[in-house]
Amino acid sequence: MPKCRLFAWPVVLLLVLALVAGAASARELATDPDRLLEVELATVGMDQHSSAPVALLRDPESGDVVPIVIGTDQARAILLAMHEVPLSRPQTHDLMVSILDHLDARLERVIIDSLEDGTYLGWLELRAPGDEEPRLVDTRPSDGLALAVRTGATIAVAPEVLEADVPFDFAPPGEEVVTALGITVIRAEADLREALELPAVPGVLVSRAVGHAARAGVEQGALILEVNDRSPETPLEFLDAVSATPEDENARIRFWFEGEEHTIELPTDVPEIRESDDALAV
């Protein structure tokens, strides 16, 4: 039997057992579900002090960007999905999404409910056909985030995790990519500027848009010129400008697209990026 089949079957069996047998777990949710806060997965990179991969989560309520330590393989899986890199064969997280689809099951939320002795703990909140209540499956948060970026599942975090004082010195990956407000941006390199005939002004290039941003006209190939009167030249500067939006105010976005400039306002809450937005994603 080929090695790839030997590797895949344990994953298949785990998901099937979780959905059919009820996903029994030795631990319980570490917080009241009503206390969980929705966040947006912004990007992944490296902590320069520990060399550990970290995911940055944007908390729309506080405007803070919070680090979550993740595994190397999961960081790669998240970046592949954010860059929408086509693969000849499905990777592990792609396989898990396919299994859920074939079982007509849905990943509703990825929950990060606890930080214990430096280890983040999490859950997958799944719903199968006929379920009145979702099923909880214990997971490493890094695997959960890799699934969330593929499915559009909500990411919910316990306040204690967001408030934990975790020092970090973030370094972006080689090809920087950031998502905020449902807008995924990359650097507007010279070759892309030439190919897309972009104006010679500071800005970051949109590679994908969903939710409110897509409905407001932000599309792939748009150049974000300003966020709240700040001109971002890198994806992280775009994230910083979004995070600095005053509380209870919308973010003002000025962008260029196909020869015209547009100005829109977007709410800073976590956008819906479910299947209903697929026609809007670019």
Brief account:
The chain has 282 residues and is an alpha+beta fold. It is built from eight helices and 14 strands. The protein has two domains: 3-171, Bifunctional nuclease domain; 177-277, Pdz3 Domain, CATH 2.30.42.
The helical percent reads: 25-40%
Shape annotation: globular
CATH class of the largest domain, please? Answer: Alpha Beta
- What is the gyration radius calculated from CA atoms? 19 Å
SSE order in H/E notation?
HEEEHHEEEHEHEEEHEHEHEE
The CATH homologous superfamily of the largest domain: Bifunctional nuclease domain
Number of domains: 2
Enumerate how many helices there are, as a single number: 8
Strand percentage lies at: 25-35%
Report on the architecture of this protein:
The chain has helices at residues 3-21, 72-82, 92-102, 141-151, 159-163, 190-196, 211-215, 235-243; strands at residues 37-47, 53-58, 65-69, 106-116, 119-127, 135-139, 154-157, 170-171, 177-180, 183-187, 204-209, 223-227, 251-257, 260-266. By secondary structure, it is of the alpha+beta class. The protein has 2 domains: 3-171, Bifunctional nuclease domain; 177-277, Pdz3 Domain, CATH 2.30.42.60. The longest helix has 19 residues, at 3-21. The N and C termini lie far apart (39 Å). Residues 1-8 and 275-282 have low confidence and may be disordered.
